[in-house]
Amino acid sequence: MTLRSLSAAGALLALLITAPQTQVAAAGAPDSTAFHGASRVGAIFGSSADRPNHHFCSGSVVASPTRDIVVTAAHCVIAPGTGRARGGLTFAPGYHDGVRPFGTWSVATVVAASDWTVHGSQNADVAFLIMRPDSSGRRIQDAAGAESLAFNPVAGTPAVAVGYPSRTDRPVYCASHLRRFNAHQLEFDCPGLPGGTSGGPLLVGTARDAHNHGAVAGVIGGYQEGGDTDDVSYSSYFGPAVAAVYRAAVSRG
């Protein structure tokens, strides 16, 4: 696997890290619900020989001209500030209950901003994965479909989070609203998004159960790598910097 780091020049200027704030879920925030999954969202697996079926993060296929791109949180695939991508990563779209209905796809290249790979900025906790074709030569988007990308999302927009708790083999979804945590971070209040849901999409323009296609307006990550409780999640803001990383991934795909 290779790693491509985007320069911090231009749109990718270094961003300030916000001082810690108290995490309190909004009153009346709904719990997450287990379901059979959506074809475009999947689980990320490592290469551990003793735990071959252990998934530890989530991601989603996003529409691209190259039809081979998955978006996730950068902390899932690159330790902050190291510039080294994890090896042996695979992705199973639509995974549930041990079933891989659309197959298993291996990661060829990880593309992230140098604000993450060099500086470890929580405001750049987004990565795009370029997937290899499967054994039949299919691209992942042709097999599983894809979500759109929604840049510059507006606070208050209804959204649905989808992710894979690492302790179960069934994904969960939760409908809530995007909130602006600060200038560079979104907040999403939903009890029931534990470890493993990092990298999962915050989808706008979809049904409450993510049944139909939507658009990815964020991924669970960012502040405290997505939050230090199961109740409040975060995302680096999908603005011009993330759009630049996406374009870099398309150019490499």
Any overview of this molecule?
- The two termini are 13 Å apart.
- This protein has helices spanning 74-77, 114-117, 140-144, 240-252; strands spanning 2-6, 33-34, 41-45, 55-62, 69-72, 90-93, 105-113, 127-131, 148-149, 158-163, 172-182, 185-189, 201-204, 215-219, 232-236.
- The chain has four helices and 15 strands.
- A hairpin with an 8-residue loop joins strand 10 (158-163) and strand 11.
- It is mostly beta strands and 253 residues long.
What's the arrangement of secondary structure elements?
Elements: E1 2-6, E2 33-34, E3 41-45, E4 55-62, E5 69-72, H1 74-77, E6 90-93, E7 105-113, H2 114-117, E8 127-131, H3 140-144, E9 148-149, E10 158-163, E11 172-182, E12 185-189, E13 201-204, E14 215-219, E15 232-236, H4 240-252
